[in-house]
Amino acid sequence: MRESKNYLQDLNPAQREAVETLYGPLLVIAGAGSGKTKTLVCRMAHLVEKGIPPEKILLLTFTRRAAKEMIERASLLLKRDFHKVTGGTFHSLCHTMLRQYGTLIGYSPNFTLLDRTDAEDLFNLLKTSLGLSDNKKRFPKKDTLANLYSKTLNQEKSLEELLDSEYPQFLEFLPEIQRLFVEYKIYKKEHQLMDYDDLLLNWLEILKNYPQIRDEMGKRFHFIMVDEYQDTNTLQGEIIKYMASTHQNVMVVGDDSQSIYRFRGANYRNIFDFPKIFPQTKIIKLEQNYRSTQPILDLANVIIANSKIKYTKTLFTLKKEGAKPVLFRAKDEAETSKFVVDKILELREKGIKLSQIAVLFRSAYHSYELEVELAKRGIPFVKYGGLKLLESAHIKDLLAFLKIILNPRDFLSWNRVLLLMEGIGPRTAEKIIQTLKREALPTSLNRILGLSPSHELKRWLELYTTIKPYEEESPSEILQKIWYFYEPLFQRIYSEDYHRRVKDLEGLFSLVLKYKSLDEFVSDLLLEPLEITELEGETLDEDPLILSTIHSAKGLEWHTVFILSLIEGRFPSLYSLKNTDDLEEERRLFYVAVTRAREKLFLLSPLMVYLPGEGKTFAKPSRFLTELPKTLYEEVNYTTPEEKSSHIKPVTENYMNTHYSTELSSTSSFKIGDFVKHPHFGEGEVLEVMGEKIKVNFISKGPTILHLKYTQLERLL
Ligand SMILES: Nc1ncnc2c1ncn2[C@@H]1O[C@H](COP(=O)(O)OP(=O)(O)OP(=O)(O)O)[C@@H](O)[C@H]1O
């Protein structure tokens, strides 16, 4: 919805108060769909209307795209240019500031950013050089080490405490891990590298130790606004404290019930601690929801009412009418997919655009079955939240080339680049790197060429020494040159699927055209990794249906929302079941999913799912479903349109229970002597039937007791 010129009059009293409170600390607790984005946009416009120059405003958001959109909306509102507002993520702010002020702590302006996999590779490298990978087979792997390191910084826990609670099997390696972490820090500093956490840590260090920088920041950004405050981490909370210390003009907006990034270090307590850091804080709650109908909100309110710590708020709406959310418990995922696709087609016939419908899920793989069905029935869709572009090897290759152009001392990237070349293995790569460490290019050119006869190395070094990233060449010209060199290597290395991969590269080539500096291009790619779908840009006849993980659906809304796989072990996810805090986060995730729907909500919970190694297995309905009073939703039975003309019928008794028990009794009708087949253990003979349990003598593993409820056996004779 576009704001009108009389934007203040469009606001409700709470929103208006938030917009008109310009000075001092302000905490806005905004329920889902209560107009927090609208409030931020209007406040930004109001600041400028009151004479504040846009360059004095800092807007921190969860994604760069969100900041850009808000700034555009504010400028439309006042019909004024807002491009001087500084908007972006915490990481991008810190990155910009460190390029400018990093020299204070020993970093040159062209330091290199390490993404997560680079950080893991560095751990591997150091592990080998410290001799920790050879003898100690059970030493933690590189991803565990990177994860642990990041957690020690973000969770205010010592390494020992973290190991004790999460990886007790590695406690015996405490001194070695500690040493590794020290080496990791030294290496980064020596080679001008910063990982994602360093961006926050280093900027915070400068803010803490240099009062003159705090003053400078206070003058530069006289008004600070932070969106999605519930998903900031402890370091980000501290950065805000220092950035606003001279004037305290800081507004943060968030919804504690929508905090879903704990697993990445977010600390939802930040929102509760804000008034402690800024004792003058004014708190405003936004509780009127403009998005969903009352029946959807009733469900959402019950879900979150069970949360342990929260700012109590109850969402209400003036949209009282509306259909109750629908629960459908299909026989299996195939039936779920058919149901979802039939409903989507029905909605499309009623005039709802596909792009106004979203299918949400906890993990990207939950939609695989549905994707097949959609493809079969010719429904166009895009999927968000899957693989990030940066995780694909070919993009990492290209980035490595760009990174060594920007920072010749980025030896991690040198290593990747060298290993791509024919005739160069790890030992030669190491020799070349040692030479480069002693003597930079082009002086060391002949010495390096003497280390390997590889033609590709020769071609690369000749090209490398001619590229001048900080002078006349544009980022797109540089990328073209690299591609010219890399293309034959790319076709050789990825010979099986380079046709598919080349599509991502095409996207990258169109993206680079927008950039004037190579440094900015590389930093942006690393700071906000694009999803593959964002680059595909295929032209379709019709806007596609949205498939998305719930994390990627944050902040968005659709006419109709389907939520898949509401079963134990999937949603809530398996890893969360042991820990109350993780389980709480899953609940909030469910709340986020439900509150994305404007008019219609479908909850899907199949009775059986396919588990690798287990075959088809009975599924337990999600605890989030069983907690809900039955009056809040309508459970439906379903037969496909081919089977019946009226395809949805309300269920009179509890469909799930009856259906479930019939399946059970039919499976328990085995008798002694039956030959059966198990998807994992293979064939065997029934020795004993004990109620819901059965004892089978498998050819592969001998007598085994199985629980019929959780296993799938097929009778062979
Ligand atoms: N005062 C208002 N009058 C009419 N519509 C409003 C008002 N405030 C917000 N809306 C509408 O409500 C919807 C939700 O608003 P918005 O996206 O700003 O919510 P949000 O708080 O950011 O949601 P969430 O946190 O759930 O993502 C939008 O369509 C917006 O235009």
Descriptive keywords:
717 residues, alpha/beta, Rossmann fold, 5 domains, 27 helices, 44% helix, 15% strand, globular, hydrolase, DExx_box_DNA_helicase_dom_sf
Task: Describe the secondary-structure layout.
Blueprint: H1 13-20, E1 26-30, H2 36-49, E2 57-60, H3 64-78, E3 86-88, H4 90-101, E4 112-113, H5 116-129, H6 142-154, H7 159-166, H8 174-190, E5 193-194, H9 196-209, H10 211-220, E6 223-226, H11 234-243, E7 250-254, H12 270-277, E8 282-286, H13 294-305, E9 326-328, H14 333-349, E10 357-361, H15 368-376, E11 381-384, H16 393-406, H17 411-419, H18 426-438, H19 445-449, H20 455-464, H21 475-493, H22 498-512, H23 518-527, H24 532-536, E12 545-549, E13 558-563, H25 580-594, E14 597-604, E15 608-611, E16 615-618, H26 623-626, E17 634-638, E18 648-650, H27 655-667, E19 675-678, E20 682-690, E21 693-698, E22 702-707, E23 714-715
Parallel strand pairs: 1-7, 1-8, 2-3, 2-6, 4-5, 6-7, 9-14, 9-17, 10-12, 10-13, 11-12, 13-14
Antiparallel strand pairs: 15-16, 17-18, 19-20, 19-23, 20-21, 21-22
Helix pairs in contact: 1-2, 2-3, 4-9, 5-6, 9-11, 13-25, 14-15, 16-17, 16-21, 17-18
The structure holds adenosine-5'-triphosphate.
Brief characterization of the structure:
With 717 residues, the protein is α/β, with parallel strands linked by helices.
